[in-house]
Amino acid sequence: MTTIDITNAFNSTPHNVIFNALNRMAVSPQFQKYLRMFLKQRECNLGKNIQCGVPQGDSLSMQLFCISINKIIQQIEKKYEVVVYADDILIGHESKISSDQIIGECQKMFSTIGLEINPNKCKSTENNQEIIFMGQRFMKTSPISRADHLLATARQCIDVIDFAPLSLQIKLLMLSLIAISKVNFGPLIQQAPIDNSKEK
């Protein structure tokens, strides 16, 4: 497995890439006009219009970033297993394929939309090294889907809460705060089916 680090991801996404993606999705001109104002009618302290990046801290920004890289992610999914959460990317691949090859392929693909990969920050499970992705530990033999592990952990929490000498209200509160959060890793559970007929 290999993680991919996009250099300064949210601040580097070109606006033209975002609007090209919105056009492919047939987003209405009216909404695109609003988004253009949202992105472009800001100025830096040098007085120059900003031509790339999405505003930090806005929920819409993550959506726009994800839309802009979706085409590249779909290309990667044709060859490998992929888990993506915004700019956090984990790629599952056969051991005969080196992480350097994966990083090189991603560099070429992301460069087509003006984004760069930082090889020094990409991690791999090669040489039995451990990587941490979205708070989960992965080794070379770990499955890319953590559904079984996360659900088992949630069941343990539910059993402990169920037998605890607590009121029903407190149990429900603990269930929402502890047990549910254990499976709140959708990208690590919901995997697109892989076509095994494709040559890897």
TrEMBL record:
Q: Which UniProt keywords apply?
A: Endonuclease, Hydrolase, Nuclease, Nucleotidyltransferase, RNA-directed DNA polymerase, Transferase
GO MF annotation, one: endonuclease activity
Query: Coiled coil where?
Result: none
**Residues covered by the Reverse transcriptase domain:** 1-138
Q: InterPro entries recorded for this chain? A: DNA/RNA_pol_sf (IPR043502), Rev_trsase/Diguanyl_cyclase (IPR043128), RT_dom (IPR000477)
| Heme recorded as keyword | no
Q: Report the Gene3D superfamilies cross-referenced here.
A: 3.30.70.270
Q: What is this protein called?
A: Reverse transcriptase/endonuclease
Q: Which organism is it from?
A: Trepomonas sp. PC1
Lineage start:
Eukaryota, Metamonada, Diplomonadida, Hexamitidae, Hexamitinae
